[in-house]
Amino acid sequence: MSGVQHHLLLCATPTKALCGDPAIGAASWNRLKQLVRELGLEEPDRPQGVVLRTKADCLRVCTGGPVLLIWPEGITYGGVTPERIERIVHQHVIGGAPIEDWIVRRTPFSRALAPD
Ligand code: FES
Fold this sequence. Notes:
Blueprint: E1 4-11, H1 22-38, E2 50-56, E3 68-71, E4 75-77, H2 82-94, E5 103-106
Parallel strand pairs: 1-2
Antiparallel strand pairs: 1-3, 3-4, 4-5
Helix pairs in contact: 1-2
FE2/S2 (inorganic) cluster binds near residues 15, 61 and 62.
């Protein structure tokens, strides 16, 4: 295994009512799972590293969701939909170009933990 390229955490079953529509969260989660599989992003021998995905109940944003947090950049996207998931995976995860207009928070690693 060549390591982990990205870890995507989606607040897909929000515990706070203002976080977003759970139905859109569930549809976004399903699209994310499907895309990661279709594009071979979780193949252990992928040269760029694997892409991990986790369904979360809360990512401490709790408004304007569903929200998607991507490590190692520490970038959180708001207003996630299945269509946005598709563009985020292609443009940010594969292409390395975050989509500024949809970013609602940046939480970089502290210096001590930052990757080289
Ligand atoms: S309930 Fe979604 S981030 Fe808190």
